[in-house]
Write a structure and sequence with these properties.
Layout (H helix, E strand, L loop, with lengths): L7 H23 L10 H28 L1 H8 L4 H25 L6 H33 L8
Helix pairs in contact: 1-2, 1-5, 2-4, 3-5, 4-5
The protein binds fe (ii) ion (2 copies).
């Protein structure tokens, strides 16, 4: 059995706390897409700023997960989780690309009603994929550590 680093639960707790923070940020960004009509340029710019900040947090969060070793630790404890953990980490670049695509779409000089609809669909897809990602991540980690650390929702 792999030796257990005392800092593991600390890293793990940090990652799970970040999941909650990211969820709040995604919910905050969602309010911008609740209106079916195209917003003013300044509101679109504010939404872009929110999404850029979200992207930065997300990038940092993914790096922590990739370098923090807690998914590897889950695999070391339970090798059958290897496929799931690898698939989860492989989703990171695609999630960032989805967000980049949305930011790019909103950055166009003129946003038509059709473009706004597409942007809303982009956001909904990103949001659903992101939540599915974090859910499966939480599940792998919880299974790998095989104990409820009292940190999961
Ligand atoms: Fe992740
Ligand atoms: Fe995560």
């Amino acid at each position: 059995m792999a030796s257990i680093d005392r800092s593991d639960p600390v890293i793990l707790g940090h990652v799970l706390a970040e999941h909650r923070e990211l969820f709040q940020q995604i919910m905050a960004a969602r309010t911008a897409f609740q209106n079916g009509t195209v917003p003013s340029r300044s509101r679109v710019d504010a939404t872009i700023a929110t999404l850029r900040s979200l992207r930065e947090h997300l990038h940092h969060h993914f790096q922590l997960e990739e370098e923090g070793g807690f998914l590897e630790e889950s695999i070391a404890r339970m090798p059958r989780l290897s496929t799931a953990a690898t698939a989860i980490l492989d989703q990171h670049p695609a999630l960032l690309r989805e967000l980049d695509q949305l930011i790019g779409r909103l950055s166009a000089a003129e946003i038509s009603a059709v473009e706004w609809k597409l942007a809303t669909a982009d956001f909904d897809r990103f949001s659903a994929n992101m939540q599915a990602h974090e859910r499966s991540e939480n599940a792998v980690v919880q299974e790998g550590y095989n104990e409820d650390l009292g940190l999961l929702d």
